[in-house]
Amino acid sequence: MAESDGGEDLEAFRREVRGWLEDSLTGDFAAARGLGGPGREHEGHEIRHAWERHLGRAGWTCLGWPAEHGGRDATLEQQVVFFEEYARAGAPHRVGHIGEGLIGPTIIDFGTEAHKRRFLPAIRRGDELWCQGYSEPDAGSDLANVQTRAELVGDEWVIHGQKVWTSLAHVADWCFVVCRTEPGSTRHRGLSYLLVPMRQPGVEVRPIIQATGTGEFNEVFFDGARTARENILGAPGDGWRVAMATLGYERGASTLGQQLLFRRELEAVIEVARRNGAGRDPALRDRLSRAWIELEIMRFNALRTMRSLAAGEPGPEVSIAKLYWSEWHRRLGELAVDVHGAAGMLTEPAPPDRYEPTDAQRLFLFSRADTIYAGSSEIQRNIIAERTLGLPREPRP
């Protein structure tokens, strides 16, 4: 974890961020406040993409990137301040977070100079959006079972296979795809990490309609899709190492911003409990108190995790953090509908052929996925048991 610039400097930075957000979330962008987020990615994509470009022009994207790659070399404390003020301002959920938080740092660490010149500026400006091609029908939490294959034909990789649960693939320009490039290889061996353009023949995106009625997850079919020979990070067959590094960045400073959104959700639930009297119920009051306490613990745990990642020593904290926040968020969804009581069964007005959930219902439904994506709770428990507690490995078929 980088050292703080000092309390006064940090407060000056906070005032700068707050002032810029207040000035910018006006006019056309006033309508973008509060749009987007898990289960709500369908909201205002065009204006949120315009906002992403506005952030990029003003230098408020990629804060933690090195200055030589267009970032600000921001300390961890500065990044936390930015996420705090961003959440407090009700700014829209970022459409470029996969590019900025996942593939950008991966390219910085594993890409060639040509990769950095081609891809990093477009991510920083908010011009190109990315999605993640990891999971498959038979390779979700067991990522090493990837079957999507790619063959080098002349100067291009030709890709065949299927990815699933691909967030925002329907609006993405590029996808980073883990695929098998060595015929006959199994498990972690023979995988490569390719950068693949989405807008081409041979790429088909099919939205998966969720219980919330929206479709931000997708199936992606590659049927002879192509990408240039040089669009590979690391050497052929080195994809597992690169993919694991990307997952490490996924647990980075942006999780603190995620927790501020959690705080806003919890505050909304508490406000409902005050209004409808649910807070007078001892059992519900106890659950609300526990949720608040556990959210504070989550924040301290995240800061500890950031220190490990900044030191280049990711440890069990990464799996502990994922297990903790996903299970907490699922419980918050259950608490939200319980606080609403019988009224929570009612939905928003909508056309007869469409389901429009309330905020509490959406939180309840979408948070069920938190314990599955980005590493299921079962897998995280196995990692903690085997790598931290030294328990015997789970039997494998």
TrEMBL record:
The keyword Flavoprotein appears for this protein: yes
Molecular function terms, GO-annotated: flavin adenine dinucleotide binding; oxidoreductase activity, acting on the CH-CH group of donors
Occurrences of domain Acyl-CoA oxidase/dehydrogenase middle (ranges): 131-223
Residues covered by the Acyl-CoA dehydrogenase/oxidase C-terminal domain: 237-388
Cofactor(s) listed: FAD
Pfam families: Acyl-CoA_dh_1, Acyl-CoA_dh_M, Acyl-CoA_dh_N
InterPro entries cross-referenced by the UniProt entry: Acyl-CoA_Oxase/DH_mid-dom, Acyl-CoA_Oxase/DH_mid-dom_sf, AcylCo_DH-like_C, AcylCo_DH/oxidase_C, AcylCoA_DH/ox_N, AcylCoA_DH/ox_N_sf, AcylCoA_DH/oxidase_NM_dom_sf, Mycobact_Acyl-CoA_DH
Keyword field contains Oxidoreductase: yes
Keyword annotations: FAD, Flavoprotein, Oxidoreductase
GO cellular component: plasma membrane
Domain Acyl-CoA dehydrogenase/oxidase N-terminal span(s) in chain numbering: 8-127
Family membership noted in the UniProt record: Belongs to the acyl-CoA dehydrogenase family.
Protein name as it appears in the record: Acyl-CoA dehydrogenase
Organism of derivation: Thermomonospora echinospora
